[in-house]
Write a structure and sequence with these properties.
29 strands, 6-stranded mixed beta sheet, 6-stranded antiparallel beta sheet, 505 residues, elongated, mainly beta, 4 helices, 3 domains
């Protein structure tokens, strides 16, 4: 963890590397004089700034993080030494949403040349009546500064009132970064103390089948596809719940640390969220999926080893990392679930038969019939009915909705991976143990095709062992993990039974 102290103002790292040409519309008020139709000189000029966003990827490798834009609340414009703060609104032009400022009224004088010496887009930090915590989103660099080379017209620039018919005056702004304020030429940006901090990450991806990653960036790594590969990842950095920047290690194919630098304002309480996404197989393709969010405040650091790097592993192939995440399951976001005609037991050896459809190719589950189980002994599901379901991995409860996140999925997975402890077990033993894990707990009475608990050989023992040994259990490669199906639109309580199947993660 490295810290460098700079003197900066109380404004935050901003969101999106972007350059915005600005159109200034000059509207003169004209009037007619008597019958000669003579025109009087205008008394004022109305100036409006309109922005067009340019593709931020043009700047990705030019020394400034690739940021993400947030809504701009107002602009700060200094013209001939006078500060103006027009509010910003958005209009959709040619299917693109563009920011516009309210008009600024300037006195008309043909002998005066108006000079713009500062142009900033601002975020009011959700305190519109308090400018002390406002944040610069983007700024026009000053003449002679490092970033002046990025644009065609740095400040100061002039507006000649004789050119009022010229509707577009190009003015460009770049996403402002407090830690590189000198590159904008902003000597005035030296008020409060800021500490520039850094967190570095390095990870491993455990691939159950390395060939699943043929065609991905992993294939280009130095040693090609392996069971244990350096993780290609990205970090979204949030300060006080606002996205500041996104960092990735694609350019080095994950074969080195992914370092995130950020500004910590010493006179403010700052909350920083680091959201980790890892490039994994998604169906037949590859996408970044979320796996972990770390939250720290001010000078706190994410737990790390003696090397100063936050080590993580996705899977169970590298047990010595600072953070070990559950194995990844390549699952569809949704599926159609139908209860087969035979229940308690189903024809596949479970409590129900799950007939799955509408699953695209490439996932770890596919269209077909699976043995299925349920957790909710007080809620029913209809035989022969078809349900549109959201699909979740039982290994990541933090990514589930609250209605199922607190179910004992770790213990359910422990049971399915230790059935060899219970010779002669039946489907009813397994389902009975799951109902004992339910909250409120099953009272043991015969119900829904289930025999009474007192008649089951192993159900109580399975439950007792799962409570004793299954807390935070993660299956090893070759084991089993539940895939959960929750009816779409479910709110705070299930409307049908929460059902699941098990697959090898």
């Amino acid at each position: 963890m490295n810290a460098i102290t700079l003197n900066l103002t109380k404004m935050k790292n901003l969101k999106l590397l972007w350059v915005i040409p600005i159109m200034i519309t000059l509207v003169f008020t004209m009037c007619k004089k008597d019958q000669q139709e003579e025109t009087t000189l205008p008394t004022e000029i109305e100036v409006t700034f309109a922005g067009d966003q340019v593709d931020p990827s043009n700047f990705k490798n030019d020394g400034v993080p690739n940021c993400s834009m947030e809504i701009v609340d107002y602009a700060k414009v200094v013209i001939n030494g006078v500060e103006y703060f027009p509010e910003v609104f958005y209009l959709t032009i040619n299917n693109v949403e563009k920011p516009y400022t309210q008009s600024i009224k300037l006195p008309y004088d043909p002998n005066v040349t108006y000079t713009v010496t500062q142009f900033l887009f601002m975020d009011d930090n959700q305190t519109p009546n308090d400018m002390s915590d406002d944040v610069i989103i983007a700024a026009t660099p000053e003449v002679g500064s490092t970033f002046a080379g990025y644009i065609s017209k740095p400040v100061p620039f002039t507006i000649d009132v004789l050119e009022f018919l010229k509707l577009e005056i190009p003015v460009e702004v770049i996403c402002f970064q407090p830690d590189v304020y000198t590159s904008f030429g902003f000597d005035w940006f030296v008020v409060d103390e800021v500490t520039i901090r850094e967190e570095c990450f390095f990870g491993d991806l455990c691939a159950k089948n390395p060939n699943d990653y043929i065609g991905s960036l992993y294939e280009q790594q130095t040693y090609g596809l392996q069971i244990d590969m350096p993780a290609i990842a990205k970090i979204e950095l949030y300060r006080n719940d606002n996205l500041v920047a996104t960092f990735d290690n694609e350019d080095i194919l994950g074969e080195g640390p992914l370092c995130v630098t950020y500004a910590d304002y010493d006179d403010l309480v700052d909350k920083f969220d680091f959201k980790l996404f890892i490039l994994v197989r998604d169906g037949a393709g590859f996408n970044y999926k979320p796996f972990k969010t770390w939250t720290i405040y001010d000078a706190q650091v994410i737990p790390q080893g003696s090397d100063g790097i936050v080590d993580f592993v996705l899977g169970m192939c590298a047990p010595d990392a600072d953070f070990i995440f559950a194995p990844y399951m390549n699952l569809p976001a949704t599926a159609t679930y139908k209860v087969g005609g035979q229940t308690a037991p189903g024809s596949m050896g479970g409590y129900l038969d799950a007939i799955l459809t509408n699953i695209p190719a490439g996932y770890e589950i596919s269209n077909g019939t699976y043995a299925s189980w349920c957790f909710d002994h007080q809620v029913t599901i209809n035989v022969g009915a078809t349900y549109n379901m959201d699909v979740y991995s039982s290994l990541y409860p933090e990514l589930m909705p609250a209605v199922i996140a607190n179910d004992n999925w770790d213990m359910a997975n422990w049971i399915m991976n230790h059935l060899d402890w219970y010779p002669g077990y039946t489907w009813a033993d397994i389902q009975g143990a799951f109902w004992l894990l339910d909250v409120p707990q099953w009272n043991g009475s015969a119900s829904g095709g289930m025999p009474a608990l007192s008649t089951l050989t192993w159900a109580q023992q399975m439950y007792d062992d799962a409570v004793a040994y299954g807390n935070e259990y993660l299956p090893l490669p070759g084991g089993w993990a539940a895939v959960i199906f929750l009816k779409q639109g479910t709110g705070n309580s299930p409307v049908i039974q929460t059902v699941f199947i098990v697959v090898d993660p």
